[in-house]
Automatic annotation (TrEMBL):
The lineage of its organism: Eukaryota, Metazoa, Chordata, Craniata, Vertebrata. It is found in: Mitochondrion. Belongs to the class I-like SAM-binding methyltransferase superfamily. rRNA adenine N(6)-methyltransferase family. KsgA subfamily. One of its GO terms (molecular function) is DNA binding. S-adenosyl-L-methionine binds at residues 36, 38, 63, 85, 111, 141. This is rRNA adenine N(6)-methyltransferase. GO terms for biological process: transcription initiation at mitochondrial promoter.
Length: 334
């Protein structure tokens, strides 16, 4: 392997600007795919600096598009950059970058939602979960349409320590719609507190590190963007299966303006709802008149632990879905 000095001092040769690349390959952002391009390399450099020290790192970039952030990552002295791009229109522009950075940039024409990153990087990078994070980073300016399902998928991977987290506590630096970034980092009691806040914060240290104004993108979206940095925790704040935590949290936030007992009650069949909800809240020591936004991660830990015990006692409980019960009732009436 080359010395860190030579890796650290790599700079891309002069290249057409991102604006020129867009013109050259006649690229246009597709509105249905919620694509927006970052053209200002000073801004992409700033995002990469905020991601941490990438010298000799292995980086997985999702949705590189015309390659603005890609250039900044390559200039940060990485050992290798792997980009996964679904839209074939962007491949020739990325190939130009690959030619300018021999042996540094690997391009995969594929879908981030199905790509198997766990086989992509050397085994030697793997770290024990309790150790410092590995020298592997995920970075991306995500299309708004896939950002929420993708982060939920990755959070599930964190909980199971698989996918990108096969290597250990892989850090992520991702761009979201500002509102989503605010939800991910919202504190207890804030208006933006939501399902996403709890799901992210019970598994990761989550920081909103940068806000990018809409006018920095082409085409200009109607909203600003927020860059969020995730570092998986050595120990999750709730030690229950991801799907169980997700179910409790989703139900709690169903009626976000009402008292929390209203949404949590939907975890139980109607016939036993009142009694079981009372038992859940009492055993978890949670005030039934708190709003969902006022519940802390510790509250959710207690609720999930108690709900797990109730599911162990009643094997059919976890499979219960109140919407299904409503549907069956309306069919009977019809």
């Amino acid at each position: 392997m080359a010395s860190s000095r030579t890796l650290g001092t790599f700079r891309l040769p002069p290249l057409p600007t991102i604006r020129e690349i867009i013109k050259l390959f006649r690229l246009q952002a597709v509105k249905q795919l919620s694509q927006n391009f970052l053209l200002d390399l000073r801004l992409t450099d700033k995002i990469i600096r905020k991601a941490g020290n990438l010298t000799n790192a292995y980086v997985y970039e999702v949705g590189p598009g015309p390659g603005g952030i890609t250039r900044s990552i390559l200039n940060a002295g990485v050992a290798e950059l792997l980009v996964v791009e679904k839209d074939s229109r962007f491949i020739p522009g990325l190939q130009m970058l690959s030619d300018a950075a021999p042996g540094k940039l690997r391009i995969v024409h594929g879908d981030v939602l199905t790509f198997k990153i766990e086989r992509a990087f050397p085994e030697s990078l793997k770290r024990q979960w309790e150790d410092d994070p590995p020298n592997v980073h995920i970075i991306g300016n995500l299309p708004f349409s896939v950002s929420t399902p993708l982060i939920i998928k990755w959070l599930e991977n964190v909980s199971q320590r698989n996918g990108p987290f096969t290597y250990g506590r892989t850090r992520m630096t991702l761009t979201f719609q500002k509102e989503v970034a605010e939800r991910l980092t919202a504190t207890t009691g804030s208006k933006q507190r939501s399902r996403l806040s709890i799901m992210a914060q019970y598994l990761c240290d989550v920081q909103h590190i940068l806000t990018i104004p809409g006018q920095a993108f082409v085409p200009k979206p109607e909203v600003d963007s927020g860059v969020v940095h995730f570092t998986p925790l050595p120990q999750p704040r709730i030690e229950q299966p991801f799907k169980l935590v997700e179910k409790v949290v989703q139900n709690a936030f169903q009626f976000r303006r009402k008292y929390c007992h209203r949404g949590l009650g939907m975890l139980f069949p109607e016939a036993q709802r009142l009694e079981s909800t009372g038992k859940l809240l009492e055993s978890a020591d949670v005030d039934p008149t708190l709003r969902p936004t006022q519940l802390t991660v510790s509250h959710f830990k207690s609720l999930c632990d108690v709900y797990r015990k109730m599911c162990d006692e009643d094997p059919h409980l976890f499979a219960y879905n109140f919407r299904e019960e409503l549907r069956q009732k309306s069919e009977k009436r019809g």
